[in-house]
Write a structure and sequence with these properties.
By secondary structure, the chain is mostly helical. The chain has 2 domains: about 120 residues, no CATH class; about 90 residues, no CATH class. The longest helix is centred in the last third of the chain and has 27 residues. The chain is elongated and about 85 Å long. The chain starts with 5 loop residues before the first helix and ends with a helix.
């Protein structure tokens, strides 16, 4: 992963700890109503503290798949590159005739030129296969080509993957923590798992420790209903 999400994990764990303490707060000088208001005030303090730790939402304009641009950059740009890729594609065809599948040819090669040849010829080749979706087949193979380029340390592919991971991960944490403040963390937790399994595990550990069976969340909802309406993030700030 290209971004350190430990600060977000720690912020969530602290929030869960603070809220668990808040909903059980009591003092012998307080009436029942006074204790309720104090508990809610402490919940609001925990929310405010978490809001200050939420990463800014990335600009949607940068949340784009950069893989196609990398694949497109592999297209031959002069006669020499056309010749090289032609020779490499001929070798790939020989590999396929020997019984191996094209996916294996992608994963076995250490040649960027061969990967370029596969990416630039696979769609036309796929139309000769017994498949109902040659374009989809070709797209799947190009995705493998991109992954192989990353594994080989191709500068453009590595850079694109790093940027994509950073933006997707930041967006997922922004959404999850914002939803948590508004009482809907479960709505976006699976998206968090997809981009940050370690962060997801930290979230689940905090939930197990401080919100087992959702009891703390239920207590917060009761406090919100007693003291005020549930607040959106913008209203808490």
């Amino acid at each position: 992963m290209s971004i350190n999400t430990k600060p977000f994990q720690d912020a969530y764990t602290q929030y869960r700890s603070d809220v668990a303490k808040a909903v059980t707060y009591t003092h012998h000088d307080l009436t029942h109503t006074g204790a309720t208001r104090q508990r809610h005030a402490r919940v609001m303090q925990a929310r405010s503290a978490l809001i200050n730790k939420i990463p800014s939402a990335p600009d949607p304009a940068v949340l784009q798949d950069r893989r196609p641009a990398v694949i497109e950059s592999l297209a031959p740009k002069n006669a020499d590159q056309v010749a090289v890729q032609g020779a490499e594609w001929a070798k790939v065809q020989a590999i396929l005739k020997s019984g191996r599948v094209i996916q294996q040819a992608v994963m076995d090669t250490t040649s960027v030129e061969r990967l370029a040849a596969i990416a630039n010829n696979v769609e036309i080749w796929a139309y000769g296969l017994n498949t109902n979706d040659p374009e989809g087949f070709a797209e799947d193979v190009r995705s493998l080509v991109f992954d192989r380029l990353v594994a080989l340390g191709h500068e453009g592919a590595v850079g694109a993957q790093s940027l994509d991971e950073t933006f997707r991960t930041t967006a997922a944490w922004n959404k999850f923590l914002t939803d948590t403040i508004e009482g809907n963390g479960n709505a976006s937790i699976q998206a968090l798992y997809q981009v940050d399994p370690e962060g997801y595990a930290a979230v689940q550990a905090a939930n197990f420790q401080f919100n087992l069976a959702g009891d703390t969340d239920d207590a917060v909802k009761r406090l919100d209903s007693l003291v005020s309406k549930p607040l959106a993030v913008a209203e808490v700030i």
